[in-house]
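Late entry, written up from scratch paper. The run itself happened at the end of the previous shift, but nothing got recorded in the book at the time, so transcribing now.
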Amino acid sequence: MIKTQVYGPVTQFTMGREFEGQLIYSMACYYVDGLLIDSGPFHVAGELETAFADYSVQQIVNTHHHEDHIGNNIWFQEHWGVKAALAHELAVPLIEDPVPWAGNMPPYRHLAWGEPLPSKATAINTYVETDNYRFNVIHTPGHSPDHICLLEPDRGWLFAGDIYLSDKVTTLRSDENVKIMLQSLKSLLQYEFDMLFCASGRVVESAARQAVKAKIAFWEEQQEKINQLHNEGLGEDEILKRLYGRESALYELTDGDFGKINLIRSFNQG
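Output as recorded:
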């Protein structure tokens, strides 16, 4: 499934896989002036030629190496002659040889996104230029060590990848580091931006910096509560029950890879 939504010069491509008529999960890539920010999951490769018939992809930037963001690099490189995808230097070897990590993905990720094929990648510079825009590259680790955001300062656009999904997130992947994500979110506030384009598909069309501030405040509040309960001697399961009542349904579906307990564990680390 691929659907499009236009935000002025920016086109959002929402991509996902349907199973027995139900959408399993979706993510969003963004196209602007020949630049494609993330290429989406491999499962939708058969729909790309139709979906992008009116677009000319000249460059690809991967915000990080996860399979739902790099899955179609190879399609654009082989079918349209797009050069190596641009990504953080830590992401390059993971994109060019995904077999070691992708082969060990939990089953739900294989089902939702598919396993990416090797594709060409090169380390991104401090900025990316198109014919009409210049995007500054901001390293924002936490969701993954290689995560980056793109900022077009003249237009006030921030393409945030997976660093911002919504302002009140209580479920985390087991490999995410919420403390580092908090630092990354705070680092974004040194920049001016009005619109926030998220890989979750959410677009914050105004007061985007306030949205980032709200997420920071919410996570700091959660951190304070979790630390207090931890200092009182409560274990992870007790903290979970006290703060959130019950675990997310996704916890069982993902064999524990995605859940509220991971937020608690991440705040308790170190």
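Residues 2-214 form a domain with the Metallo-beta-lactamase; Chain A fold (CATH 3.60.15.10).
(Scratch paper discarded after transcription.)
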